Amino acid sequence: GQWDQALLLLVQMASARVELSTITYNAAVSACAKGGGQWTQALGLLAQMLVACVASNTTTFNAALSACEHGGQWTQAMGLLSAMACARVDADAITYSIAVSACEKDGQRLQALALLGEMSA
Question: What is the average pLDDT across 59-66?
């Protein structure tokens, strides 16, 4: 798939001492989301960003949330929402839409409704 090629490219870039940026990581996390919900890899990339002191943003978290959604990991998605708040990254309508979808796909309707209430507050 494309996600494994994206991860390989990141490794090659790092080996060649190319500075990895927020945009570079966002592309890789997004590839994980589009690759059938490679959520563990997406969360691993978020962790790498933290260790490497590369700033994450709403796009980064939305891509990771999407990977969790596609991977059927609603609890991980809720954890990411909390992590966003801790990192002082603003959630947007897309963020909540993905999180609500992740909850609904796993039958967590009450959690989805709570998120919708949070969004309108």
Answer: 96
